Each structure stands twice: as structure tokens, then as C-alpha cells.
């Protein structure tokens, strides 16, 4: 598999593209980076002789399939909702596929078809999710090899800023799509604690947290990350009474998340109220409501 197609040259792609190019001579890889912003893709290639940038509007089916046809393996770094179209193309064209996003129900249903065609379809292969799965399985396998009984599994992962770069009050920087950072705070979560299901709606996501201490780094807060129960069988932990996958963040960011969650509820209510009662003046009303909730004072 020498011909690698990377679709998407956004924030999350830099480290991967650099890694592929750095190893391309030794491995005899040819790297194509395709994006709607071809200048951005060109920057990521950085004149490397084994890389080429291509313009791609992923919504244009023929253009998308033409690029996929030329590849041996496709790495989709598109927004999660766009993976499905690429996945269908890969099955039709018999190409392997890797994504970094959580595996949706629709993507999961393609698993049998991919296996029937002897294709490698791998999801959740980034940092979080991704590296956390690999490190978890390494520890679980080592314990099982020693004959240990695992009664609890708790994994805490997060893209924390290196201390030398931690120079803002949030103790956080956008290293991935800012929209997805916002949406992550609007999801629900569930996990097992003493064999009891704990379900957390998004309105309580940032309120229900636990404190942990990282050696030589200090204290951090952890909140539940999505549906931990999905990983019981995947990790070989069927029947385990405690399982939690959590997101680790600095204390101040969690407090900011709570404030944002409260504002989002108020904004959403205001938007639909404006749309229902004030059309066609909705935009103006929404602007007024946004100023009101952001500023909480007149003449802002």
C-alpha cells in the first residue's frame, strides 16, 4: 500500500501528514493531500518530493471517486458526518479506510461488508479516541496475561497544552475543529459504577466531575466522555461492574464549559422564540438577544 490519500488538511492533519512525509522515502510512500483549500494542503506538503496537493470538493462525487481510485488506502480527516460517503466509495472501489473520528452507527453497519471484501476499515484511530484505546488494550492484555481479575476500568484522556505553551487563562488551545469542541459539550454521557448505569444529560455534563492528581502536574478535573458502555466488549471486559472513559481538563476550562452550557440553553430558547414570534425580524432579535446574554449589561 504505497499510495496514500489524506482527505482533509485541517488542524488535526498536521502531525499525520508530517509523519507520513518523514517516512515516505524509507517506506516508498506517495502521499496525496486533498482539501477544498488547496493552498492549505500545499502548505502541509511543504514542497516534499513525495507529496502532492489536490483540490477536492468532497461533495463532488466524481472528483472524490477519481482520487480514491488512485489510492491504495484512504485516511479521512473530514468532519465525522462526511466519512460515510467516503466509506461507501471505498467499499465500492475496494480501498482500505482509516478515520480518527468516533465510529457512528452508520459506519459500524458497514463493517461486515468491508470484511467480506477483505478491506481494512479502522475508526477511532487518532489521539482521543485512538491512542487511549491502544494504551488501554496494552494494560488490559498485560493484566490478563498475569491472571489478574479486572473489576474496574477508568481511562482519562485529553489534549492538554504543554506547560511551556500554557499561556492563556483557559489553559486550553484549539488544536482541532473549534466547532467540534463546542459540540462536545452538548453531548450526553453514560458509564457503569458498581454495576449501576449512570446517565448524564448535557445540562449536567460539566457539573458531575471527579478530581484526579497527575504526578508532578497537579490536580485536574475529569468528566464522562460519551458512552463508555460501548467499549466493554471491545476491550474484552464483558461483565465488568465499573467502566468509565473520561475527558481530562484544567479546572478553569470545566467552569467555562458550565457557563457556556447555560448560555447555549438560553441562546437556543431565544433563537426559536425569535423565529416563531418575530419573523421576518428574527435576525435583529437574535442579535439583540446575543448581545444581552454575552454582555449582561446595556450599551455593550
Provide a descriptive summary of the structure in words.
The chain has 300 residues and is α/β, with parallel strands linked by helices. The protein has 3 domains: 3-122, Rossmann fold, CATH 3.40.50.720; 131-249, Dihydrodipicolinate Reductase, domain 2 (2-Layer Sandwich); 258-295. 39% of the residues lie in helices and 21% in strands. The protein has 11 helices and 12 strands. It has helices at 14-22, 24-27, 38-45, 61-69, 83-93, 105-109, 111-116, 131-145, 178-184, 251-278, 282-295, and strands at 3-7, 30-35, 51-55, 73-76, 96-99, 121-122, 152-157, 189-193, 196-200, 209-214, 218-224, 242-249. It has a 6-stranded parallel beta sheet, sandwiched between helices. A 4-stranded mixed beta sheet has the order 7-12-11-10. α4 packs across α5 (83-93) and α10 (251-278) runs antiparallel to α11. The longest helix is centred in the last third of the chain and has 28 residues, at 251-278. The radius of gyration is 22 Å and the shape is globular. It starts with a strand and ends in a 5-residue tail after the last helix. The model is unreliable at 267-300 (pLDDT under 50).
Strand-helix topology:
Elements lengths: L2 E5 L6 H9 L1 H4 L2 E6 L2 H8 L5 E5 L5 H9 L3 E4 L6 H11 L2 E4 L5 H5 L1 H6 L4 E2 L8 H15 L6 E6 L20 H7 L4 E5 L2 E5 L8 E6 L3 E7 L17 E8 L1 H28 L3 H14 L5
Parallel strand pairs: 1-2, 1-4, 2-3, 4-5, 5-6, 7-12
Antiparallel strand pairs: 8-9, 10-11, 11-12
